[in-house]
Amino acid sequence: MQRFMKPSWLLLAVIVIALAITGWQHRPSSAPKEAIVDHNGVALSALAIEGHETFKKNCARCHGEYATGTNSGPPLIHDIYNPGHHGDGAFYRAVRQGSPQHHWNFGNMPPQPQVSDAEIASIIRYIRETQVANGIVYKKHVM
Ligand code: HEC
Question: Which atom of ligand 1 is nearest to the CA of 104?
Answer without folding.
Answer: 18
